[in-house]
Protein 1
Amino acid sequence: MTAFSTLPLKPALLASVETLGYSEMTPIQAQSLPAMLEGRDVIAQAQTGSGKTAAFGLSLLQSLRVETIRLQALVLCPTRELADQVSKALRKLAANIPNVKLLTLCGGMPLGPQLASLTHDPHIVVGTPGRVQEHLKRGSLHGGGIKVLVLDEADRMLDMGFSEAIDDIVGRIAKHHQTLLFSATYPDDIREVSRRVQRNPVEVIVEAPADGKPAIEQQFIDVEPARKLDALAQLLTGERGQHALVFCNMRRDVDAVAEELDARGYSALALHGDMEQRDRDEVLVQFANRSCAVLIATDVAARGLDITALPLVISYDVAHDPDTHTHRIGRTGRAGQTGLAITLCTPRELPKAENIEQVLGRPLPWRPLKLSPPRGKTLNLAPMKTLVIDAGRQDKLRPGDILGALTGDAGLKADDVGKIDVFATRAYVAITRSLANRALERLRAGKIKGRNLRVRTLA
């Protein structure tokens, strides 16, 4: 590990790094940042949670010239959720640089407000390929001054059919720019994209820890289809099951598994693409703030999830291909943590498991699971509960205002208040479950920032 202070970073960025508690660089940062700061193109194989966002974020902020009011950096992400996470991370890194304008431009959102925001050029845009391409075509986004292009989770963008959009975007921005490509897997089509859009890139592949201990322990469990839900419920009763992500291949199975787990007493929620965007946002908020113990999701919907300490990932269905399997297990064991990734495999799914084994080049770690007799409903509730406040950034509401109201008039201790998320028109705050009703009553009876605001429990 190497200290960030050894890099030629602006004092403002070093101050942000210190504020965020990043004492030493992660392997991906140590191996990629020197080349990126020199202006070299980089192609890096890096899992989510490895510190890649901070790596390319520090690099593009280092080259940013705030006094030049034009778009200088473009970050493309496969989903809106991931784009939102990247935007939040970049804003934190830029906290000590005054007047940095960053916009998030994603599909599924109204075009009007985005067009209004683009009347003055931003310095940085983070967005999904389709919407960014649309703005470039309309002329509402000007790519002639872009110095840095980042393709984040490039393999997922290709899986989602964004290859042509990426090529079109590259053709519409400044010819001479730095391209940084990050991907969790390294298939041939990623190498082909690199050949098209990069110039002599530095290749970075983060190896396993030198001590030989993998951050992620994998287990494959043979199970009959009729007992799959029983097996899942049993695996979720342990300590790791208090915060677990479960993958299903089909949207309908996501809903079915979530409903069954809820009926058995688990704090479980579903996440998939058929849901309204606000519902998806609220599910992600609840899982991140520990108001939901188990999240059942499709692969695409889970891409925006940014949870560092996620101890358990379960594949309820074997992934369709080895690359998807790699992405799934990469949701745990992140940022220096250890994690457990379990795959449930029925006899019909064995060919898919054998395909994963062939790509891994080693035998899969099968283990037996002795199933207990089915039990009645037992409560396996998440430790927190979420309150919704119908005010947000547009109302000048800040996390500190909410915390102050809860620890003041509401009489809670700071330790009883969890993660606070403030969106444009509403805010979400996690409260220790046993105190949530008391906090709700006190907030309704009192004021937040001198105002009476509508507060309710998020079901």
Protein 2
Amino acid sequence: MKSSKSSMDSLIAGGLIGAALGAFLSSDKEEGAVIGAILGAAITATTNASIEAKKTQLPQMIEEHGALYEIDVNGEKRLVKNLNKTTRFLPDQFQLI
């Protein structure tokens, strides 16, 4: 239970720092604060999840330059698969019926 409280505290801290930075950098202070808070919390959550994943001693999968790699606990990177890029083109505008 202590871990979830710690995670929540770090998410709140990341959101507050992001809100302050977003308000400082944006011309629309309210919108900048909201966007900054969301980004700050998301970055904090991603960082915390990555740290916790590394503690499991299991290989991690990452996508890099259009390919899927597995990284062992000792840091060795192995190519798993080249990823195909989509060739589907979507129209710029849609007509709602």
